[in-house]
Structure formats: structure tokens, C-alpha cells
User: What shape does this take?
Amino acid sequence: MKELNVKVPAVQETSYPIIIGSGLLSKAMKMVNDKFPRYAKFIVSDICVANAGLLKTLDPQGNIPKFIINPAGEQSKTIQTVISIVEQMEKAYMGRDTVIIALGGGTVGDMAGFAAAIFKRGIPVVQIPTTTVAQADSSVGGKTGVDSTISKNAFGSFHHPAMVIIDIQTLMTLDDRQYMAGLIESVKHALIMDAEYFDFIESNIENITARKTEILEAIAEKNCRIKASVVENDPTEKNQRRALNYGHTIGHAVESASNFDLLHGESVAIGIVAAGLIEEEMSLADNAQHKRIRNILARLNMPAKIPASISQQQIIELLKRDKKAINSWPKFVLLEKIGKVHCIDNQWAIDVDEKLIRKTLPKLY
Amino acid sequence: MKELNVKVPAVQETSYPIIIGSGLLSKAMKMVNDKFPRYAKFIVSDICVANAGLLKTLDPQGNIPKFIINPAGEQSKTIQTVISIVEQMEKAYMGRDTVIIALGGGTVGDMAGFAAAIFKRGIPVVQIPTTTVAQADSSVGGKTGVDSTISKNAFGSFHHPAMVIIDIQTLMTLDDRQYMAGLIESVKHALIMDAEYFDFIESNIENITARKTEILEAIAEKNCRIKASVVENDPTEKNQRRALNYGHTIGHAVESASNFDLLHGESVAIGIVAAGLIEEEMSLADNAQHKRIRNILARLNMPAKIPASISQQQIIELLKRDKKAINSWPKFVLLEKIGKVHCIDNQWAIDVDEKLIRKTLPKLY
Assistant: This one.
């Protein structure tokens, strides 16, 4: 018996820029071309973004090869759509010297990012998020993934974007429901990391719902700073990055079980309420704090209850299949107070017994 | 306009062991359990390997969850098979604390490795290669991938194994054709990196075809040392690693066009002959050298001609879709002499004009 060792060399630190502003979309292709002068370009977007006119702003001539996801949204976020993207790129004879430009919300970014991660073993992706949820969260950090027929993000990889371009003006095309739901990721950032930011959201809630450009730019920057600091500390989610999952464990289960009737942000809002109930059950947080949080969620028109069509048992089953589950049960992120996650043994996600979850679930109906 | 920067932290150097011996398969699960005591185990194999009795040697009780690819071989090496593997793991409630054990040839290793790369954003894989081609080449180096309906390895990623276990005894189960074809990767290693190794193969060709254990252990070790040194220098194939592609550019096209009637090694053998003809056309190598190479390929019963059912135009079309193509045309690896790749400007893969390829192709019929 012989043993050899194969070294896997170290990878140097790199970085990517996030560019935030108003009216950037019409200049975005120039930014991409400046960064990737010798690369072919391929746009991935969806039918809603195209219908809202954003695709035309990005590519006025319409001559950049593209894939338009149709229908838009979670129901298309499947491995089959990624296969279609890759095969369309192949039909256009695109090689490894291609950069994918993802124009759209979180699902477009996830699908385009995952396609870039696995196309011919990996090509660069530029994220141009156009929704509140994508600008606050999913476009930064390199998580990509698509759903299987069984669970969310069953397929995925870490693939950092080469550049992120955030144009606040694109948010003006969103309908109220989508706009509001996406703000939940901003609330989440404040809850886990920054009490002052929570105060800021609370005192500016009317300007936020009125989509005031200056406030939105400030929020975009704040979100990116928080997200960047967390993913820099823990790029592949060994510990601190799990904090970003606040409200998402039960949120993902509710989202899945609702068959995408609920938006991601609406599901996470329910998940945040659930986390609050668990915190109360564990005597972590007081009732006054929950009132403040619930009040903000209500001002953003978020649901606080699980739809009656979803059974408690369904939620338990989906929690067991959570992709972060260890021994078929996930860990939970909980707050000590607004702006501070409750860590045990320096772990940001902690054990919560299935019994305690079963005890909490009825309060969400 | 504001610009933030997100750091992507450096990744430390790591390493993984390759364990080579005779009769290791019955001890392999103990090795895996020792390395991953708290991980669930999931085996990916194929029907041929199962029928040859190797699966029973690895898992005598038959109680480790598994996915058996059926039919075996290239026709199953598709994204749809990877989807089935992932969904079977999900149905078994497997989480990120799972290690995939790939038992089989190159196609099993590629599919299991790719499934591990994308399952819930990545889990470890242990490679137990059971064919000459997988032991010589594909089990080491972290390349994973599956075919689309349009081209080979259209989907893939770099995902290094956590451990490689090479049991020479598993080669005794191969039929002659598969056994011989897999040796072409050993010939390729010698051609690109090590003239003495080529002499060794030449003078031991009878012991090799007779499957003498000692010779096979020596070859396995030699192959792993060459492959390891190349991938250590260039893990993500920026330059030197391209040398491993010798004979593969036209080889892959022929393999694809043959609809898998030809084995990978047989196609690469044709590709090596093609490379030789290109080298002659470019006055790189003399005729005596080619005779030596062709003689070894003939002793291993390899074809030297492209099947008449495949047109030259088909080959040209597939070359344009080669996953390494830049501007729709691949670069080629060529020899200066046995053991030495012809580099230009320190590049291991170089430009060869489409006209020269079109001039060479007729000589392969």
C-alpha cells in the first residue's frame, strides 16, 4: 500500500465592487465592457423585467444574446431552467470567455449565478439586481442555487459575482406587494446586526414606503455594508453567515409549502414572527421588543400568520429536509435583542428542540 | 454613485491522500469512516460495477444508501442523472453532513463528483476508481462534469475529492476492450511529461496487457504522481494543466460524434494520432517518433481512424463548441518530442489554424 498526497494550492484574496446609484442601468453595459473587454456577453433576465422596460434600457439595440425566463419568479427557479440557459449559450457557440449579466430579482440572480458556476466549469457573472430583495441581499455574497422538486436550493454552489451594479431607479417598476416584501431583508439585516439601522428604518418608514430615492440609496448602501462584512468574515457559511438566515428556516418551509403563493419576503416575515415566538418561549426577548418588530412588519403589509392551507406537519417535514439540517433537523438563528444574535459557544445558529418548535407552530395560525 | 468593495477571503492550501494498493476495496468503508466519523455515507455506482461484485465488496451488508446508475457509461452521463442522484439523497433526508463515495469508472466519478459539488452548495466526495482510465486520470484533480444534449461536460465544476482509494484488483473485472482503452491516459501522461515512463510502458507492454499486479501498481503510482504534479501547479487549468488535454480536443469531438460507440480511450487514441499528424504538418516531430507511438496504440488494440459514419464537418462543428474554445475555436496541445509538450510563449495549448485542421482531417479516414 502506498500513499501519495495531492496539494490543493491556496487561493489568493480577491474582491469585487458594488456600484450603487440612480440611473446606472443605461451605463451598465459600458461598465461590463470596460471590465471584460475581450469577453462575449450573455444576458439572463425574466419576462417581468423585460415588460417593465428594464431590458431595453440595458440593451437598447437588443443585439446581445439573451435568455428570458418565462414565467418569472420562484416557479421557474428549477434546474430545468438552468439547463435551458446553458443549452441556449451552447447553441450560440459561447465559450468560457463569456460573462453572464443577470438582470432581475433574486430568482434571476440565483439562476444566472448558478448557470455561470457550472457552465463549462465556471464563468464570471455580473449581478444587476432590480428588486428590493435582490438589492438588499441575494446579489451580494455568491450564493447561487435552484430548487429540486423536493426542496428549495437543493442544487447550488458558492460563486461570487465579478461585479454588482445597483440602480435604485429599477425599484420604481415594482408593484407594491413585491416592493414591500423585499424590504424584509433590510429589516432582517437591522435585527441581526445593527440596532441603529432598525431605528432608522422605523423613523423613515413613510419615506421608505413612498420610495424616496435618497432613503433607498442609504438603505442599499447600509444593506451592502452589513452583508459584505458578514460574508467577508465567513464566505462559505461555517458560522456567522448563518445569522443572515434569521427568519429563513421556518420562512423557507412556509414559502415552499405555499407553492409560491407567498413571496420570499412575506414568508420570511412569518419566519421572523416565528423566531420571535421561539425567543419568547425561551425567555430570550421581551414582549415590547416583539411589538416593535411586528409593528414594522405590519407597516410593510406583511402577513404574520401561516396560511390555513398549510399544515403544521408539512412545516415539520420541510424543516427536516432543510438544506442546512444536520441529522435531519436544522439549527435556528435567534435574537438576544434587536441588533444582536443570541450565540451559544460562539455559534450563531443554535439547537432548538423539535418539541419547542411543535409547541410554537400553533401560535402562528 | 457610491462604490463599495467586497473582499473574498483567501483560501488556505489543503491536500488529499491517494491510497494505492491491491485488495483495498474491502477496507475502503473503514478508511472513509475513519476520515468522516460523523458524516452520513451515500454510494454512487453503476450497474456494471454492481454486477462485477465490487459493490458487494465495498458494502457487504448492502445497507448504505446508494444510487446505481443504469445503464452504465457515457449515455447516462447527463445532468438528468445528476438530478436523480440529488433527489434520491433528498428523499433519504441526507444533509450537508454527507459524504458521497464514488465507486466506478470515469463516468461514475464525474457524475458523483458533480453531484457532490452542487448538492446543497457542496459536500465531500471520496473517489474509488475501478477502471484503468479512472485510476490513471479522472479520479485525481477535481474535474467533474456531465454532458448536455449538445456537448460533452457542458455542465461541471472543480471539486477536489477528499480522498482517492485505488485498488488494482478492481481492474481484473474489466473486459479487454475497456481495460485497454483506459491505458491510453497512461500513454498520454508519458507522452506529455516523461520519456522514461514511455520507455517503461513500451518495454512492459506484454506485462501490462496481461494485467500483472506489480506493473499495474507501478503504473498507477506513476500516473498519480504525474497528474498530481500537473494539477498542483495549475489546479483550475489556466495553462499547464491543459497539457493533460493532449489528444483530447479531436478525441472529444470523435467521442461525441460516435454517439458513444467509441470508448473515451479509443477516441483519445484517434486524437493522439491526429495530434501526431498535426505535429508532422507543422514539422514539429519526425516520422520515427510517430511510428513508436502508433505502435504502442496498436498493441493496445486502439483504432487509428475516424469511423466513416462521422463526417469531417461534424468534427469541425464539435470543435467550435469545445468547452475550452475561445472565439469558437479551441487551442491544441502538441508535442515537441516524446515527454515534452511544444509550448509557445510559455503556453501549453497553442493556436492551430482551422485550415490546418481541415487539411489534416482527411488523413484520419
